[in-house]
Amino acid sequence: MSHHLVEARELSHAYPDGTASLSGITFTIRHGESVAIVGANGAGKSTLLQHLNGTLRATSGEVRVGELPLNTETLLEVRRAVGMVFQDPDDQLFMPTVLEDVAFGPRNLGLSPQESESRALEALRRVGAEHLAAKAPYHLSMGEKRRCAVAAVLSMGPDILVLDEPSTGLDPRGRRLLIGLLGEFTHTKLIATHDLDLVRQLCTRTLVLQDGRLRADGPTHEIFADHELMEDCGLEG
Fold first, then answer.
1. What are the extents of the domains in the chain?
2. Considering the chain, what is the average pLDDT of its residues?
């Protein structure tokens, strides 16, 4: 798959009761960009992210990854390209040991047990968590869980990393380690977050959502310098 872009075209989503959560979202993100998605609670950040790997399906409009529109036929291929790190790492860590968790994705891709374990160990090494391989996930700190959740995604070899509130619940040291880790990755990254300092350090471009609509899209330093925009969208920089 070509992984040079992630694209939303007039993307809209409504809940079963008809309440709109996204309305006409359009953007293109190119290979290697690091892009933040910010907005007040309820703006639609997590909902948008869940459309990028097919966890949610659009009511109208479309998502494209590379040359592929995201649909039932392309879902598995898109999910191989788009690695999603959820806000709560407990949603991704459920096996008896960390190593089994991180190897779970490669096994589901059809790799052998040996190749899956090799990929898992390499992913844990990349996030500085190889010493946690034999531990049970529920014995880990939040920062350790977060790194292992990232490793579980990396083990599948995605082209694009999508992270939902990655610094939530981390102490200052854990947050600093996570920012350093993400800064080392050359993947295309989309990060939904309330942590505007993290955005300043990692993301050169920012999308601002307000009430399910794309209010602004531009260089992070310009977005954050627009104090009227930030205040109107419930953001404090």
1. 5-88+159-232
2. 92
Residues in the chain: 237
Closest-CA residue to 31 (of 67, 85, 55): 67
Is beta strand 82-85 parallel, antiparallel or unpaired with respect to 160-164? parallel
DSSP state string for 95-129: SSSHHHHHHHHHHHTT--HHHHHHHHHHHHHHTT-
Strand bridging mode 68-69 / 160-164: unpaired
pLDDT at 237: 60
What's the CATH number of domain 5-88+159-232, 3.10.320.10, 3.40.190.100, 3.40.640.10, 3.40.50.300? 3.40.50.300
Instruction: Determine the pLDDT at residue 91.
Output: 87
* Verdict on whether the full-model pTM lies above 0.85: yes
Return the structure tokens found at 50. Answer: 């869940």
